[in-house]
Design goal:
By secondary structure, this protein is an alpha/beta fold. The protein has a 6-stranded mixed β-sheet with strand order 7-6-5-8-9-10, with helices on both faces. Strand 5, helix 3 and strand 6 form a beta-alpha-beta unit. It is globular, with a radius of gyration of 17 Å. Pfam families: Pribosyltran.
């Protein structure tokens, strides 16, 4: 996408504006993993804002068409990737499936919901990439079902080195509308953070599992 930087800037500004992403360098959040973090991201908030929801849908669809060519199926990662994936699949006129974190323990015990055709060229839609492990678990489930997963797209990525390593090892291309560097740049420009906070945010991203507020 030629205007990728412009898209990233707009997505970052929109997510900050509606508080889908919050930055608190001096009063960090605690993630479910136990990590202390100066950022909290809940892109599901965008679903409640039609203009932003529409923009994200359009740009994800454009990204898929331009970067992956002919695609035959869109698959969302449960749960946050499901609504985004449905919107994109509808926009592109493609079949949709979604992938659970684990197989159901009842009924048909599905992990993938929806119809999968052997050899289908599929793109996975994710809300957010941190370490990439849950995203790649969904990719592997689709591959195990004989899908040809050509890549994964997301709204936002933290850009962790661990995620880059995990995607490289899985041989899965991934693209995001917005990343952590875009976010910090826009946040500083629009006074969501102080310039003195940038160093804190950079230190966290470099070593999130070990970081602690000073």
């Amino acid at each position: 996408m030629n205007n990728m930087n412009e898209v990233a800037q707009k997505v970052a500004e929109s997510l900050l504006q509606i508080k889908a992403i919050k930055l608190q360098p001096k009063k960090p959040f605690t993630w479910a993993s136990g990590w202390k973090s100066p950022i909290y991201c809940d892109n599901r908030v965008a679903l409640s804002h039609p203009p932003i929801r529409t923009y994200i849908r359009q740009k994800l669809a454009e990204l898929i068409q331009e970067e992956f060519g002919s695609v035959e199926m869109i698959s969302g990662v449960a749960t946050a990737g499901i609504p985004q994936g449905v919107l994109v699949a509808q926009d592109l006129g493609l079949p949709f499936t979604y992938v659970r974190g684990n197989s159901k323990d009842h009924g048909r015990q599905n992990q993938i919901e929806g119809e999968v055709v052997s050899g289908q060229r599929a793109v996975v839609v994710e809300d957010l990439i941190s370490t990439g492990k849950s995203s790649l678990k969904a990719v592997q489930a689709l591959r195990d079902a004989d899908c040809n997963v050509v890549g994964l797209v997301s709204i936002f990525t933290y850009g962790f080195a661990e995620a880059e390593k995990n995607f490289a090892e899985a041989k899965c291309r991934h693209l995001s509308l917005c990343n952590y560097d875009n976010l910090v740049e826009v946040a500083a420009k629009h006074n969501y953070i102080l310039n003195s906070d940038i160093e804190i945010l950079e230190k966290w991203r470099a070593n999130p599992s070990e970081w602690s507020p000073e």
